[in-house]
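subagent[fold] <- orchestrator: predict structure for attached chain, return C-alpha cells only, no commentary.
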Amino acid sequence: MELLQNILVYGILGAIQGFSEPIPISSSGHLVIFKNIFEHFGWNFPKTDITFEVLVNTGSLLAIMFYYRKDIARLFVSFFSYIFKAEKRDAVLPDFRYCMLLIVATIPAAIGGVLLNDYIEEAFSNVKLVGCTLLITAVFLMLIHKYGYKGKRTKRKLNLWDALRMGCFQLVALLPGISRSGSTITGGMLGGLEQKTARDFSFFMFMPVSLGAIILKIKDFATPALSTLWLPYLIAFIISGIVTYLALQLLFSILNKHKMNYFSVYCLAMGLFALIVL
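subagent[fold] -> orchestrator:
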C-alpha cells in the first residue's frame, strides 16, 4: 500500500515538474507548494530529497535536448569547425557567435549557483517566499503579454547585451517561484527580440545551467531514500520527461497566440494561495 502511495505521489510531482519546467509558472516553486500540500495529508518526504530533484530535472533536460536535437548537433559541429577548420569559418560564423553568446548568458547563473547554493536550498523550504516570487513571475508574464510582442530582432541580431540581460534574469530565477523560462523570455522580448528568438535562446541557456546543477548535486545522489523509493523515482523521471516534451510544444503554441496573460493570472492565484492558505 505504501509503495502504491509513493508511486502516486512521486508520479504527480514528476508530472508537475515536467509541465512547469518549460511552462512559465516555476517548476521549483510548484514542487515546494505541492510537497507542502501533500505533507498536510500526512505524506512526508525526505528532508534532503536530492535524488528525486536530480532525476526529475534530468528528465526535463533530456526532453528539451531531444526537442532541439537537430539544432544542438548543428551548433556543436559549427563551434568546433570554427575552431579547428579555418576554411569553414565564414560559413559557420553565425552559429559560432550564437554559441559564444550562450556561454556569456550562462555565466551569471553559473556563478550565482555556486556562490549562493546554500541560500537557494534554504529558500526551497519557505513556501511563503515561493508565494511572493510567484507574484513576481505573474508580473513578468503580464509584461510579455502587454509589451513583449513589439520586438522584431531575429537570431542574427542577437547581441552581447541580450545575452547578459537574459543571463541576469536567469540568475534571479534560481529562486523557487521565479519562472526561469518566464523571466528569461521576458528579458529577451522586452529587449526587442522576436518571441521565437527569445524563447529558443532561453531554452538553450537552460541546458548548460541545468546540466551544471545536476553535476554539482550528483555527489549527493545516492541518498538513503534511493534504496526504498527507486521505483517511484524512476516513474517520476519518465513522467517528467514525457510531460516536459508535450508542455514545450504547448508553450510555443500559446506564445504564438499571444496568450501569456493566462499564465500570469494563474501565477497570481497560486502565489496568493501559497501566501494565504499554506
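orchestrator: received. Logging for downstream: The chain has one domain: 2-276. Residues 225-256 form the longest helix (32 residues).
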